[in-house]
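Journal club prep — side note

Before the paper discussion, L.F. wants everyone to see what a predicted structure for a comparable chain looks like in token form. Sequence:
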Amino acid sequence: MKLKQLFIAATFALASSAAMAFHCPADMKKIDDALAKNPKLTAAQMTEVKKLRADGEASHKAGKHQDSVDTLAKAMKILGI
């Protein structure tokens, strides 16, 4: 019985990790689309958004999907998306 519960828990963990992995590229695309529209941001805000976008992509590529989602969310907040 314990083995079955462990298997179920592992399955959910892998599924949630995969879902986060797919979430990152979608967020990066939202940021890229917003930047393409030349949003009205200060130079400091634009620099911060670009840094957060790059950091989010780096975290995604490193497999740190929660860090990526959190970082990209900060960029989206500045952009108002």
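L.F.'s comment for the group: Residues 22 and 65 are 9 Å apart (CA to CA). Keep this in mind when we get to the figures.
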